[in-house]
Amino acid sequence: MSVPILMYHSVRERPPKRTAALAVTPGAFADQMALLAEEGFTPIPFGALREAHRHPRPIVITFDDGYADFHGHALPVLERHGFPATVFVTTGWLADAGPDAAGRPLDTMMAWSQVREAAAHGVEIGGHSHSHPQLDQLGDAALRDELTRNRGLLEDRAGVPVTTMAYPFGYSSARVRRAVRAAGYETACAVANRLADPRRLGDGSAARDDALAVPRLTVRMSTSLATFATIVDGRNVSLIFLRDRALTKGYAVLRRARYGVRKATGRV
């Protein structure tokens, strides 16, 4: 069984330039969700991925960062169709983070009350770090703080258990994944732009996929409804994301080398 896990960010009509590439318009999002309903897909939360085989045509709908337009534009559409979703929240970016504010939000963010409201409406709340750094470039202590602070704040302020997360920018490494597991997360999203196979989720051994590096499919402003229909149906995924996957592999090598240099020179 292969399951498409969709990765969204912002849902708004005129996103700022810094988020535009990974945004979709409210109209496009509504059309995409209507297509899923018409085609008989069953959206499930990311945390329920291992139980995907219990559902007809399972699919996972995820959102990164926690932008306010999720609450304003995406949530009403999801509720209209009765679709669950997962939102990975950057706690230091939230509009009323107060003394916990950290990092630089790219757009208007949800407030804690909206996070709690989303959770009350069946949205799974997951972690996305505290300040949205490149986790694979952090030293061990800073990495641990990003993960534990994010999860702790979400559980305390949103009042829900948090066992899933997504990596900021999609960047991780074996070291980061060990820290993620130690922080109490059970499953985590990468990007990778391929379909997920819940039957293969394991501990990252050679024979199985890592449950802390589950692949997702990028939905962006340039994704037409026809292309969306193709990827959720599992057709031509490798071809459609050929350039994305090549860039990801090349950049992973570069990032490992960069961290090695930073560690050797005492900058982490």
Automatic annotation (TrEMBL):
Keywords: Signal. CDD domains: CE4_NodB_like_5s_6s (cd10918). SUPFAM superfamilies: Glycoside hydrolase/deacetylase. Gene3D superfamilies: Glycoside hydrolase/deacetylase. GO terms for cellular component: extracellular region. One of its GO terms (biological process) is carbohydrate metabolic process. GO terms for molecular function: hydrolase activity, acting on carbon-nitrogen (but not peptide) bonds. It is found in: Secreted. Residues 57-268 form the NodB homology domain. The keyword Signal applies. InterPro entries: Glyco_hydro/deAcase_b/a-brl, NODB_dom, Polysacch_Deacetylase. PANTHER family: POLY-BETA-1,6-N-ACETYL-D-GLUCOSAMINE N-DEACETYLASE, PTHR34216. This is Peptidoglycan/xylan/chitin deacetylase (PgdA/CDA1 family). It comes from Actinomadura namibiensis.
